[in-house]
Design a protein that fits this description.
The chain is of the alpha/beta class. α8 runs parallel beside α12.
């Protein structure tokens, strides 16, 4: 039987065309991932995700901006999933060429070939590992995360596509990218970050001037948190948190994906407790992707790409929450350009549909997570993606100063658990909606000698974060205990909840929801600077470990800057202009 399998496999792969195009280089891998020596078993089957080339991407970009810009005559005229699909999906002929090739050369039955509703992704299920290696001209290996021992199967190097299908595919998901790990850092409640204060829902409402009478009433006002790689919440802990802090006792309105309450994750518990407590009665969904295999095996999720799973789920679900809080970040330099551009197109689709995507800015300052293990290797900035995308709202982190009178940049040297991410993208140019603020920041920071050396960053890039919130000294309930937690993973659901309260006001008035938030945010804060609290002190030279720092960092200044964005919300003032 084994001999027959080998013969059949040889015949199958021998029929694959030797002509190759579209070479995809292996990404720079985070130092926290280690390639293992043990080979991948012959009987392993993996899923692959084909990102099909889109049509009319420039038209999509123009559409997404026009419906998001308050100065546009098309503001708020959002498109449906089907309208966007008809604009950008590849031709049926191209889809047919790909599927026929897969049937003939990969040997998959039609049942294992899934063309998504959006018609721009093809999911391949149960691909034999050796066939995948031959088709992609690469070798797969086990990779293990050095901290939490999570394992993945990924290619050891670059891959390429056969000439017959390469012109129609942007990239293949599940081949060479390793996912970012959860960012939050937590300890038992006896430990605090820097100055002595505890962040609760009431504390946040007080500091950001959020009336405690605001709540959801409109059933069309919805919000969600996106969780990855086995980040689950526990409902008993959630109810304990609500009881402890006088929030309405509510349940998650919908669960998408797995949730094992016996394996509660700090990031998931933080996200769901904060967003629901600050925007009470707004229906809240929990979207979960990339769970671990099971409790009896080593932590692993072989060959999944949970971030892509989330994006494709958004792109193929007709009715989705209006606001999405995402705590996920990776080094921009570690991600292939074709991957980044295609993911950005997915964010454009979200903007065109009127969805708000908020992404935490990262917790390792200017240099990214590699600085934790190799600070001497920090010789330039490492912007984080997707927070540096021009189609998401990036959320930075702050902490209170020593006398508790003002917010400053979250910095591990000042007692915080994390240092906020922030900086300039090397891939994306400064978008139109922030050009005025970026130019003013560069001029002011240069005059005060507050910028890193010119060879450390791209002054023409998209600057993030866009807005910030506290990232330290949060108290949550997790595993029936009070836990102190910190990170821009906390900042993101705070801002998400506030935008949901804005959406509530708009829906009740019969107005379009906020959608892609940035054009409105930058216009309103420029005209009405009192709508935000300016953050003027601190920089982000350090990593999440206070003794592991880069020589340079971006510094806070008066007005907009590359570590706090426009500042933190003065919500009552912002709310007037919704």
């Amino acid at each position: 039987m084994r001999l027959l399998f080998v013969i059949a496999l040889f015949v199958l792969v021998a029929s694959v065309s030797s002509a190759r195009t579209s070479y995809h280089q292996a990404p720079k891998r985070n130092m926290l991932w280690k390639q293992l020596d043990d080979p991948v078993s012959d009987d392993t089957k993996i899923p692959l995700l084909l990102a099909l080339k889109l049509q009319n991407v420039e038209k999509l970009s123009n559409l997404a901006l026009s419906v998001s810009d308050p100065l546009s005559s098309e503001y708020g005229q959002y498109w449906s999933l089907e309208q966007i699909r008809d604009l950008v999906a590849p031709s049926p002929e191209h889809i047919s060429i790909i599927t026929q090739y897969i049937i003939q050369h990969v040997g998959l039955p039609l049942a294992d070939i899934e063309v998504t509703y959006s018609r721009d992704w093809i999911k391949l299920h149960n691909v034999p590992i050796r066939v995948a290696e031959e088709i992609l001209q690469t070798q797969f290996r086990h990779f293990e995360h050095v901290e939490d021992k999570t394992r993945f199967i990924r290619s050891a190097g670059s891959y390429s596509l056969p000439a017959e299908i390469a012109p129609y595919i942007d990239f293949v998901g599940g081949v060479n990218r390793l996912p970012a790990r959860p960012m939050v850092r937590h300890t038992e409640f006896s430990v605090s970050d820097g100055p002595d204060y505890t962040v609760t829902p009431k504390f946040l409402r007080d500091i950001y001037n959020v009336p405690d009478t605001l709540r959801g009433r409109n059933p069309f006002n919805t919000q969600a948190v996106a969780e990855f790689l086995g980040q689950y919440y526990n409902n008993s802990d959630l109810q304990s948190y609500f009881s402890k802090y006088d929030a309405p006792a509510l349940n998650v309105s919908k669960l998408i994906g797995p949730n094992d309450e016996s394996m509660v994750g700090a990031e998931a518990q933080l996200d769901i407790e904060l967003i629901m407590a600050l925007a009470p009665y707004v229906p809240t969904e929990f979207w979960s992707f990339g769970g671990l295999r099971n409790n009896s095996e080593p932590a692993s999720r072989y060959n999944q790409e949970p971030f892509l799973d989330w994006l494709t789920a958004l792109a193929n679900t007709r009715i989705v929450p209006l606001v999405h809080s995402v705590s996920y970040a990776d080094d921009e330099s570690s991600i292939p350009v074709d991957y980044v551009k295609r993911v950005d197109a997915e964010f454009m689709k979200c903007a065109a549909r009127g969805l708000t995507i908020l992404v935490s800015a990262g917790d390792d300052g200017i240099g990214g997570p590699d600085v934790r293990t190799d600070p001497a290797g920090c010789v330039t900035s490492q912007p984080a993606y997707p927070s540096c995308s021009a189609w998401v709202t990036a959320i930075g982190g702050t902490q209170l100063n020593s006398d508790l009178t003002a917010e400053i940049v979250s910095d591990t040297r000042l007692g915080s658990r994390i240092t906020t991410g922030g900086g300039f993208s090397n891939l994306f140019s400064t978008p139109s909606w922030q050009k005025t603020q970026v130019q003013a920041y560069l001029s002011l920071a240069k005059s005060k000698n507050l910028l890193p050396p010119s060879n450390w960053f791209n002054p023409y890039g998209r600057v993030y974060p866009d807005i910030s919130a506290l990232a330290t000294n949060y108290t949550i309930v997790m595993a029936a205990k009070d836990v102190t937690i910190g990170g821009t993973s906390a900042s993101a659901p705070v801002i998400a909840a506030l935008i949901s309260l804005m959406n509530e006001k708009r829906l009740e008035a019969g107005a379009p929801t906020m959608g892609f938030f940035n054009p409105w945010l930058y216009q309103i804060t420029a005209i009405h600077p009192e709508t935000v609290h300016d953050v003027t002190d601190g920089n982000n030279a350090c990593s999440a470990y206070g003794d592991k720092c880069c020589v340079h960092g971006f510094a806070a200044t008066a007005g907009f800057d590359a570590v706090s964005g426009v500042g933190t919300p003065n919500f009552s003032a912002l709310y007037q202009y919704v």
